[in-house]
Amino acid sequence: MAQQRTLSIIKPDAVGKNAIGDIIARFEKAGLAVVACKMLHLSQEKAEGFYAEHRERPFFNDLVGFMTSGPVVVQVLEGDNAIAKNRDLMGATDPKKAEAGTIRADFASSIDANAVHGSDSPESAEREIDYFFAADEICPRG
Ligand code: RTP
Ligand code: MG
């Protein structure tokens, strides 16, 4: 599988637990490289635009409220099969269903406060990376 990029967000609950380093270590140990990274506090507009595909879902307002409740760390991860690999490391959306040893099993508190986001397809990865990063903010490892 060719090198791929994916967007990862460490959500406000995990930032609040001081787990940024532990979570990034899991990506790096699994062979994913951080090629872009920034910390920011999302505005309501930025969070709504990011999750626009969920706009009609009943949990949308709670999701936006949670994602704007504190700072997040947004990263581009690069590596072999990065999109699926990141989703495997994250575990299921609901931490009660997440496999032992996954990031959500270890750091998430609930389906809302679930520690991390990861792009779910090559199309989402491209859109989400462009949503947060300019081309000159990404530093490929070559
Ligand atoms: P994410 O987009 O954050 O990586 O999570 P995901 O792909 O695993 O889940 P997705 O279906 O895209 O949902 C986005 C976020 O919305 C919240 N959610 N709440 N209450 C609910 O039934 C429910 N379903 C989803 C979660 O915080 C999820 O991460
Ligand atoms: Mg999703």
UniProtKB/TrEMBL annotation:
<keyword id="KW-0546">Nucleotide metabolism</keyword>
<comment type="subunit">
    <text>Homotetramer.</text>
</comment>
<keyword id="KW-0418">Kinase</keyword>
<feature type="binding site">
    <location>
        <position position="93"/>
    </location>
    <ligand>
        <name>ATP</name>
    </ligand>
</feature>
<feature type="domain" description="Nucleoside diphosphate kinase-like">
    <location>
        <begin position="3"/>
        <end position="140"/>
    </location>
</feature>
<dbReference type="GO" id="GO:0004550">
    <property type="term" value="F:nucleoside diphosphate kinase activity"/>
</dbReference>
<feature type="active site" description="Pros-phosphohistidine intermediate">
    <location>
        <position position="117"/>
    </location>
</feature>
<keyword id="KW-0808">Transferase</keyword>
<comment type="similarity">
    <text>Belongs to the NDK family.</text>
</comment>
<dbReference type="InterPro" id="IPR036850">
    <property type="entry name" value="NDK-like_dom_sf"/>
</dbReference>
<dbReference type="Pfam" id="PF00334">
    <property type="entry name" value="NDK"/>
</dbReference>
<feature type="binding site">
    <location>
        <position position="59"/>
    </location>
    <ligand>
        <name>ATP</name>
    </ligand>
</feature>
<comment type="function">
    <text>Major role in the synthesis of nucleoside triphosphates other than ATP. The ATP gamma phosphate is transferred to the NDP beta phosphate via a ping-pong mechanism, using a phosphorylated active-site intermediate.</text>
</comment>
<keyword id="KW-0963">Cytoplasm</keyword>
<dbReference type="InterPro" id="IPR023005">
    <property type="entry name" value="Nucleoside_diP_kinase_AS"/>
</dbReference>
<keyword id="KW-0460">Magnesium</keyword>
<feature type="binding site">
    <location>
        <position position="104"/>
    </location>
    <ligand>
        <name>ATP</name>
    </ligand>
</feature>
<feature type="binding site">
    <location>
        <position position="114"/>
    </location>
    <ligand>
        <name>ATP</name>
    </ligand>
</feature>
<keyword id="KW-0547">Nucleotide-binding</keyword>
<feature type="binding site">
    <location>
        <position position="87"/>
    </location>
    <ligand>
        <name>ATP</name>
    </ligand>
</feature>
<keyword id="KW-0597">Phosphoprotein</keyword>
<keyword id="KW-0067">ATP-binding</keyword>
<dbReference type="InterPro" id="IPR001564">
    <property type="entry name" value="Nucleoside_diP_kinase"/>
</dbReference>
<dbReference type="InterPro" id="IPR034907">
    <property type="entry name" value="NDK-like_dom"/>
</dbReference>
<keyword id="KW-0479">Metal-binding</keyword>
<feature type="binding site">
    <location>
        <position position="11"/>
    </location>
    <ligand>
        <name>ATP</name>
    </ligand>
</feature>
<protein>
    <recommendedName>
        <fullName>Nucleoside diphosphate kinase</fullName>
        <ecNumber>2.7.4.6</ecNumber>
    </recommendedName>
</protein>
